[in-house]
Predict the 3D structure of the following.
Amino acid sequence: MKKGVGLFLMITMLLTFSTALLMANGQQEADEGGVKTVRVWKMGGTPMETEFFEEYTKKFDEENEDINIEYNYFYGQIRVSKIISGFKAGNIADVVVAFGQDIPDFAGLRIIQPLDDIDKELVEGWKDNMVEEIYNVTKYRGKQYALPTYVDMAPFLAYNKDMLAEAGYDRPPRTWSELKEYAKNLTTDEHAGIAIQATKTPVDLNILEGIAYNNGGRYVDEESGDIVFNGPGFADALQLYVDLVDAGVTAGNPIEDNFKNGATYFAEGKAAMWVGMSWLITPWYADSELNWGAIPFPKPDKVTGDYPVAAAVMDPTAALMITTQSENPEAALRYLDFWAQPEQLTLWGREEIARVPAAKKSYELDKLKEFWPEWVESYNEGTLFDGAVTVPRFNGVTSVQPEFGNAVQNAVLGVKGIQEALDDAASVAQENYDLMK
Amino acid sequence: MGKKTYIPFVLIGPVYLLIMLFIAYPVIEIIRISFTSWHFLIPNSDVFVGFETYKAVLNDPLLIKIIWRTILWMLMGTAFSLLLGLAIGYFLSFDYPINRVLRAVIILPWILPPVVTATIWQWMLNGKYGVINDILVRMHLIPEGVPWLAQLSTAFIAVNMVLVWKNVPLVSLLLSAAFQGVPEDMLEAAKIDGANGWQRFWRIVFPYIKGIFSSVAVIVSIWCIQQFTIIWIATQGGPANATHILPTYIYQMFSQNYQFGKLGVLSIFNLLILVITAIVYLRLFRKQH
């Protein structure tokens, strides 16, 4: 019996040993001859962005013989669990391309490191090419944690000019009460008045958060550390959604249809208006004949929130960060520096026009001027980012935001009253938030 | 003598080790975690806290609903899969020419990956452009499209029916094979004695396949209770948590809240439901044999 067991153990040990040897050898080969390996995880993005990200990464790889890039793309919705799990398993990439909203959680867990700790001079030099407001959006506690390539801003309203004209309107709505009236009068047998989204997808929640911030709402009171999304700023914004749904003027089903479905309804002429973020230009696969315009979302008739009004919320959703487990942070920073150069940074504006670009030069491009004349004009006047703040960003946001999503669905479905739904969710969110504190 | 004693151990040893490594160890680890306050994002939180985490979980009103819903999910899924499977399997057991084709075609839902199944049904059940609504509206059964997956009153049943749709093919084929094993002479004798079709089915055919039927029932209930993908893809536990069952809630606890201690407790509850189910069926088996 002993012989058999011994033989079995010996074979097992031999197999384990040879596997470990092979793996170690592979790593050694990769770093041999001064070639540094930099692993990159890109999380989500528009199809065009995903395409050119890979293409330009290859270009960097070819131009830098001393750096070997291993590039991987992952579905955006799994980014937080993928990054945290990778970090905990000691197997995270050197560079992750994630959301600015993730920075407090990632920095708090020491998953990412401040870029200025690696090479302050280089990182500060990026400012010359970049819009200052966007450069600063990835700063956290005085340190630059990521290179932002653009920001998405919310909330915006797209409107079908022909449908508005048919209903006798010569301009888009300016206030919430006008919006409700427009939505009602624009609803016909052929199309709904407006497409809104109340799914738990973070993007959909960010849009509603933007509307609430317009109304003086906040997620967290920075001074007291209390979750305050159950305050009047948020409650009235949610009331607006509930009113629109109850009035039967929304396209499809807001609980079921996310921002992409909203875009499709609008693009197909099944909704006269659509609330989204600054990527409205993408009405994915829209008929080029669609006669439409876009404006910042209408403002509340009277601000009811307790905090300063924010004109918009913004977030860079392709921000390049360097992880603390990177064995080659200098090489990783060179990869970021490559992306910080105008040739790459102006891809947003030159190729992808669905984002608010970080590169100053993007605002000189004809393509951006053609598609977004208001943005460019406003940028030149220095008002594009007036009153804009970052999307809710704090340590623990990942576990707090889904609770807000629950409140939205409970209210829209009429399971609970608006205040009750928000209070219940805020109470659970507070527990999660306190744990993280 | 020596050979006779050590060979079985050598043969069983690797399997035993694998079972210990991949089944016993994770279970023991989950039990350990359930007694901690471990939060994935909080350093040094993996500490023993006795039953504190259990108390916290049991104070969650949503959880009680989810446990009941998990049991209901399993019961509904199993009952409908078996009933439909039994009917279709009985039909397939006859030697009609069309059954040769049907036996091949019917397996399609079973071989589709759950992700594909859920995605297809998500589209088919969509309130605005789903084909199910289109058919029902054309047949004048409903005046306008129903958002099956987005309404509290229909979401749970709709997702459960998707699960049934996926389970029924294999259940039918297994039971059809069992039906074909029923001796013809017994059926002939019953027919001569004046038994009608219904009586022949309940008095002869069903008792004959009862053993296989019970085994299939155990397997199906386990498939139901461990189902995650269909719900997660179709509704992510929504709307307003209306379709969460324990596996989806556990995943949400992992991917959004990172509270591993609570996740451990929920996994233990899930395991308990599975163990109780298995015990009930094993008892039924023993009675039969």
Summary: The longest helix of chain B spans residues 2-34. The mean pLDDT of chain B is 89.
